[in-house]
Every structure is written in structure tokens, then in C-alpha cells.
Specification:
- By secondary structure, the chain is an alpha/beta fold.
- 43% of the residues lie in helices and 17% in strands.
- Strands 3-2-1-4-5-6-7 form a seven-stranded parallel beta sheet, with helices on both faces.
- It is globular.
- The termini are far apart.
- The structure holds NADP nicotinamide-adenine-dinucleotide phosphate.
- NADP nicotinamide-adenine-dinucleotide phosphate binds at residues 19, 21-25, 43-45, 48, 70-72, 95-99, 118, 145, 147, 190, 192-193, 195-198.
Length: 254
């Protein structure tokens, strides 16, 4: 017997995914399209952006859009928000982010500013611009990709950890501010997931094989995070707001 019951469906939903030229954001964008959504993808790299758009179009014939923008620049954020104008979003996933490694005694002001600018300021300023223009539909859902780094101490990751912890705290307040319109805001805190960001870290520190041994379920895959993002965007999570889902393959309980 077949049934159309699917509380995770994103049919007829319009969803913006930042950082969708690579890694988690790209997988989230493609998975949203598979679940029936119209997707707006965005990143800085034009070639990879076009590739994401082509893949979205091969999944469905919805009016997917690609907007090139550097989200650390006001002009880039304006271009993105303007392109959404007049058609509110049902979901927003903030996945654009960078990781930089440095022990605190070597940290530079530029390092602090760089991670803060894309990991915290950009998602908050985009959220502000969308809310000011009523571009998040009632019952919409906003998902912020934080990190396990916000919950545990790892040497060399202080600046990055601080940005992700800031997201968790800000999203709790944001959730309270938008709840009157039944808009929800939540974070996902993944541990290590196999993406280009992880490969870059492995190149910097040599190898991640020793770290892999600390994960009872192994490192995550982009689809693990994408499936969780779909849950948090969809009506299946309609009673969940202001919280963070830690997804770490058992790292922090082992
Ligand atoms: N991978 C992991 O193990 C892991 C674990 C926990 C949390 N996270 C978080 O998950 C998010 C995605 O990470 P990922 O692994 O998917 O990284 P990734 O593969 O390096 O992708 C990062 C994305 O962010 C975009 N981006 C970076 N700077 C930008 C800027 N100034 N303006 C606009 N877009 C920008 C990049 O687009 P362009 O290159 O086109 O500019 C790219 O699409 C990040 O917030 C990261 O902190 C990752």
C-alpha cells in the first residue's frame, strides 16, 4: 500500500541556502530540492554556483535561482535580499562559514574579524534584512549551521568556537523575537563532516585519522546534516524553536 503521508515534505516551499556552492550548504540545497522546494542558492564562486544551479534544475523544474554574493559585504547582502523581494521565504539555512586555526597566543585581530564577519555578522544581518522586509513567511523556519566547537574545547579553534557559540546565544533570542508570527529559529551543531572544509583542516594539521578514532559512528557525511536541516525546516519540527541539535556521531558521549 502506498501513502502520501510525509511530514518532512518541502513541497511548495521557497528556501534560501547560503554557502550552497560547496560542502554542507550545497548538499542541503540539493536535498531541499529533492524534497519539493524551490531553492535560492548563493556563494561567491560563479562556476561552482552555476554548477549547483544546474544540479538543482536537474532535480526539479521549480524556479530555482542562483545569486552570486560576498555576504561579508553590505552590497552582496543587499543583492541577495533584493533578489528575494516580493516572494517570502518559508525556510532559510545559513551555512556559509569559514574555519581558521590559531592558538590564542598567536591570534591576530584580522583572524578574529574574518571569522566573525562571515560566521556571525553575515547571518544576523541577512536575517535582519529579511525580517524588516517581511520576507520570512509566517510559520517559516530559519536554521543556522553552528558547530560542535561551540560546545567543547579544542586547541587552536578559539576564534571559530566563539563565533559558533555566539550564534547559539543569538538564535535563542531571535527565536523569542519571531515566535509571535510562528517563525522558528534553530541551530545545528555538527562535529566533523567530510567536506572541503574538513579536507582543508586535514591539510593544515597533517591528518585527521587519529581524530576519526574518537567518533563511535565515524565522521559525518553531508547528507546527515542535510537530512537534519530538512527536518528543522519542515513542519515535522513545528514545535521546536530556539534550540540546537548536536550531531556528532557519539563524540561527546564517548
Ligand atoms: N565540515 C565540517 O566538518 C563542519 C562541522 C561543523 C560545522 N560546519 C559549518 O558548516 C558550514 C559549512 O561548512 P562546509 O564544511 O560546507 O564548508 P565549505 O565546503 O568550505 O563551504 C563553505 C561555503 O561558505 C561560502 N562562503 C564562505 N565565505 C563566504 C563569503 N564571504 N560570502 C559568501 N559565501 C561564503 C562558500 O562559498 P564560496 O566559496 O563560493 O564563496 C561555500 O559555499 C560552516 O558554517 C561551517 O562552520 C562544518
Amino acid at each position: 500500500m502506498t501513502t502520501s503521508f510525509n511530514p518532512f515534505s518541502l513541497e511548495n516551499q521557497r528556501i534560501l541556502v547560503t554557502g550552497s556552492t560547496s560542502g554542507l550548504g550545497k548538499k542541503i540545497a540539493l536535498t531541499c530540492a529533492h524534497m519539493g522546494a524551490e531553492v535560492i542558492c548563493t556563494g561567491r564562486d560563479q562556476d561552482r554556483l552555476e554548477k549547483t544551479l544546474t544540479e538543482l534544475q536537474s532535480i526539479s523544474d521549480r524556479s530555482h535561482q542562483a545569486i552570486q554574493a560576498d555576504l561579508t559585504q553590505a552590497s552582496g547582502r543587499d543583492a541577495l535580499v533584493t533578489s528575494i523581494e516580493k516572494k517570502p521565504l518559508n525556510g532559510v539555512v545559513h551555512s556559509a562559514g569559514i574555519s581558521r586555526l590559531s592558538p590564542v597566543r598567536m591570534i591576530t585581530e584580522q583572524h578574529l574579524r574574518e571569522v566573525q564577519s562571515i560566521n556571525v555578522d553575515a547571518p544576523m544581518l541577512i536575517t535582519q534584512a529579511l525580517l524588516k522586509r517581511n520576507l520570512v513567511a509566517p510559520e517559516g523556519s530559519m536554521v543556522f549551521i553552528a558547530s560542535i566547537a561551540a560546545h567543547i574545547g579544542v586547541p587552536g579553534v578559539a576564534a571559530y568556537s566563539g563565533t559558533k557559540a555566539a550564534l547559539l546565544a543569538m538564535v535563542r533570542c531571535l527565536a523569542m523575537e519571531v515566535v509571535k508570527r510562528r517563525i522558528r529559529a534553530n541551530c545545528l551543531s555538527p562535529a566533523l563532516v567530510e567536506t572541503p572544509l574538513l579536507e582543508a583542516t586535514a591539510t593544515m594539521i597533517g591528518s585527521m585519522e587519529q581524530e576519526r578514532g574518537n567518533y563511535p559512528l565515524g565522521f559525518g557525511k553531508p547528507e546527515d546534516v542535510a537530512n537534519a536541516a530538512v527536518f528543522l525546516i519542515s513542519g515535522a519540527s513545528r514545535w521546536i524553536t530556539g534550540t540546537t541539535l548536536v550531531m556528532d556521531g557519539g563524540l561527546t558521549i564517548s
